[in-house]
């Protein structure tokens, strides 16, 4: 059903790890890391103008490469798309796959930021050498239900209060030190050493790669153990914010008591007692005008969660492996969807990566992110090790050092944390997993005969997104997909969108597939045509202020296998893609393509 009003881009051949095949590219050496100061201030520029576009594009370092290869102005969309891919190949070739360990990353105290929990290397003990947890499994329960257990809430509050009372500079278990761990690892205070990256030291971040899920599992594991130690209860388990269940789609009340140590006064006060909307940005009206009541918002939320969980491969779920050599980062659906939306919804400290760990609800939010991972491998029966994209052994050998409840620096690796049971905890499931049954259905309100051929084509890549201006592109599907009428779970079809963003800016855009021009407002998260959203949780904030961050290149994959099946377009050679910008002044889309992910 491709209409001629969309620009047509070629597909790439099916490739492993969702990346195009490698080929040598002249001029690749011109790729530089442009460093632009990131002030992390709200931008106040007006609606998009041509000048704004130029400004955004000038900050796009890949463009230097493109200009070096050919005149951008003289090339059409197809050539530009091809060149953008070729440039990606050059970047891929520089990917260094040294496993991230405490030997190759180091925290740098600078710009007012003090690295928390400094330790002497000779004091580090391996987690695997410590006695395994004994006693019953610690059971993490839904936070909205533990309110009825006054004894539990009292103990939890006592533990957090004791953490807050510990000496912030002398005890790595203090609440302030614990919060600073997240800031250190997500505001680019850690550097990958030159030896490991074979380049000058580069920034390290636990987001935008398959490190996201295991690192956060480690982080809240030790946080939980510290509380248990302080209150003298080794069975203590964090409550999880059950935001994937309709009854949990609100800030759990135990966090909204101003006299409790679980309180954070900086949260968005308009949201602390409202039903959470995973499709709404800060300060914005609901982006999707289809909802007028809470029940509808909750249904939309369930669709968002269905989409993040119904991905077939570890690469889609966890994102790319971390590459020290400059390959674009890639968050998985676990990170990019509900996780980011909940941070944004809470706002305040939670709304910026640098300060997120200062809000006690962070640890319950991430307990649910962790539970989503747990469910993906258990209830949904998926395999973390599908393919090689998440880094295989590099991933399992990735390790970090955290202080444990006994104030010992402990080296813990990804392979130590793949099974929650081996860490001695589990999740109590009280609510049914309603999202499991929320596979989106084709929109009923759109007129499919209303395509408007003849609308002049206007899109060439890279393109700077502007709120209020939708972008239309038609992409070709891999022959393997259309020739067999669709794709398989083993090699599912995905829509790959390459973006360059300002890491300090909140940014969001929705992606629609096969929606005739002008009918976008008739399609919402419950509809098949809504492929999903890309959303960036801003870096910055905190003591270091997020200074010195450059532009960030990311790749995100939108699942297409079920979408194509449900729209009955498995034999079509092309898909019409609409990008709907929602927030952000500095988002550049570098390429859009369809690949088979295996
Ligand atoms: Cu988070």
TrEMBL record:
Source organism of this protein record: Triticum aestivum (Wheat)
Cofactor requirement: Cu(2+)
Family: Belongs to the tyrosinase family.
InterPro entries: Di-copper_centre_dom_sf, Hemocyanin/hexamerin, Polyphenol_oxidase_C, Polyphenol_oxidase_cen, Tyrosinase/Hemocyanin, Tyrosinase_Cu-bd
Name of the protein described by the UniProt record: Tyrosinase copper-binding domain-containing protein
Pfam families, per the entry: PPO1_DWL (PF12142), PPO1_KFDV (PF12143), Tyrosinase (PF00264)
Residue ranges occupied by any Tyrosinase copper-binding domain in the UniProt entry: 359-370
Matching SUPFAM superfamilies: Di-copper centre-containing domain
Annotated PROSITE patterns: HEMOCYANIN_2, TYROSINASE_2
Gene Ontology MF terms: catechol oxidase activity; metal ion binding
Domain of life of the native organism: Eukaryota
Keywords, comma-separated and alphabetical: Copper, Disulfide bond, Metal-binding, Oxidoreductase, Thioether bond
């Amino acid at each position: 059903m491709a209409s001629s009003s969309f620009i047509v881009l070629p597909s790439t051949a099916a490739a492993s790890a969702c990346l195009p095949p490698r080929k040598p590219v002249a001029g690749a050496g011109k790729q530089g890391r442009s460093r632009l100061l990131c002030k992390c201030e709200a931008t106040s520029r007006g609606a998009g103008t041509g000048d704004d576009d130029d400004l955004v594009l000038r900050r796009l370092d890949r463009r230097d490469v493109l200009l070096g290869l050919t005149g951008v102005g003289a090339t059409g969309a197809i050539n530009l798309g091809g060149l953008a891919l070729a440039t990606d190949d050059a970047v891929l070739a520089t990917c260094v796959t040294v496993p991230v360990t405490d030997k190759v990353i180091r925290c740098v105290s600078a710009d007012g930021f003090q690295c928390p929990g400094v330790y002497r290397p000779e004091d580090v003990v391996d987690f695997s050498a410590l006695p395994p947890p004994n006693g019953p499994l610690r059971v993490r329960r839904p936070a909205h239900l533990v309110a009825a257990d006054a004894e539990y809430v009292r103990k939890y509050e006592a533990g957090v209060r004791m953490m807050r009372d510990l000496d912030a500079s002398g005890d790595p278990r203090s609440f302030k030190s614990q919060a600073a761990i997240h800031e250190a690892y997500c505001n680019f205070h850690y550097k990958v050493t030159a030896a490991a990256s074979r380049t000058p030291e580069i920034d390290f971040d636990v987001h935008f790669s398959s490190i996201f899920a295991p690192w956060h599992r480690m982080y809240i594991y030790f946080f939980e153990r510290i509380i248990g130690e302080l209150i003298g209860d080794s069975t203590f388990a964090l409550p999880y914010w059950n935001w994937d269940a309709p009854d949990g789609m609100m800030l759990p009340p135990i966090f909204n008591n101003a006299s409790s140590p679980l309180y954070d006064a900086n949260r968005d006060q308009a949201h602390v007692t409202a039903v959470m909307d995973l499709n709404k940005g800060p300060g914005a009206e609901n982006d999707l005008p289809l909802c007028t009541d809470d029940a509808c918002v909750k249904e939309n939320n369930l669709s968002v969660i269905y989409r993040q969980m119904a991905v077939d491969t570890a690469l889609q779920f966890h994102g790319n492996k971390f590459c020290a050599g400059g390959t674009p980062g890639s968050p998985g659906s676990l990170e990019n969807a509900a996780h980011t939306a909940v941070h944004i919804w809470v706002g305040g400290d939670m709304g910026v990566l640098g300060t997120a760990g200062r809000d006690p609800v962070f640890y319950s939010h991430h307990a649910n992110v962790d539970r989503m991972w747990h469910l993906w491998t258990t209830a949904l029966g998926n395999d973390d090790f599908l393919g090689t994209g998440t880094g295989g052994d590099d991933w399992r050998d990735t390790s970090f050092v955290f202080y444990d409840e006994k104030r010992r620096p402990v080296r813990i690796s990804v392979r130590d944390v793949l099974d929650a049971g081996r860490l001695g905890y589990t999740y109590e499931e009280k609510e049914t997993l309603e999202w499991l049954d929320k596979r989106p259905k084709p929109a009923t309100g759109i007129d499919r005969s209303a395509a408007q051929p003849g609308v002049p084509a206007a899109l060439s890549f890279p393109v700077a997104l502007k709120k209020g201006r939708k972008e239309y592109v038609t992409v070709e599907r891999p022959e393997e997909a259309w020739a067999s009428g669709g794709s398989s779970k083993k090699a599912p079809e995905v829509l790959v969108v390459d973006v360059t963003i300002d890491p300090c800016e909140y940014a969001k855009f929705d992606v629609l597939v096969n929606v005739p021009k002008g009918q976008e407002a008739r399609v919402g998260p419950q509809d098949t045509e809504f492929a999903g959203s890309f959303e960036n949780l801003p870096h910055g904030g905190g003591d270091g202020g997020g200074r010195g961050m450059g532009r960030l290149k990311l790749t995100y994959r939108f699942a297409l296998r079920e979408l194509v099946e449900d729209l009955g377009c498995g034999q079509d050679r092309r898909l019409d893609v609409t990008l709907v910008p929602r927030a952000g002044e500095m988002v550049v889309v570098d390429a859009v393509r369809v690949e088979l992910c295996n």
